[in-house]
Amino acid sequence: MMKTNGNYADVNGLKMYYEVYGTGKPLLLLPGALSGIGTAFGKLIPLLATERQVIAAEFQGYGHTADIPERPLSYEQLADDVIELLRVLHIPQTDIFGYSTGAGVALQVAIRRPAMVRKLILASVSYRSSGRHPDLKTLFSPEFMEQALKGSPYEAEYLSTAPRPEDWSKQLAKVRAFEQEVQDWSEDEIRMIKVPALIIAGDADIVLPEHTLALYKLLGGGSLGELSMPASQLAILPGVMHTALTQKTDLLMAMIPNFLDLGN
Question: Which H, E and C letters describe the chain, residue by residue?
Answer without folding.
Answer: CCECCCEEEEECCEEEEEEEECCCCEEEEECCCCCCHHHHHCCCHHHHCCCCEEEEECCCCCCCCCCCCCCCCCHHHHHHHHHHHHHHCCCCCEEEEEECHHHHHHHHHHHHCHHHEEEEEEECCCCEHHHECCCHHHHCCHHHHHHHHCCCHHHHHHHHHCCCHHHHHHHHHHHHHHHCCCCECCHHHHHCCCCCEEEEEEEECCECHHHHHHHHHHCCCCCCCCCCCCCCEEEEEEEEEHHHHHHCHHHHHCCHHHHHHCCC
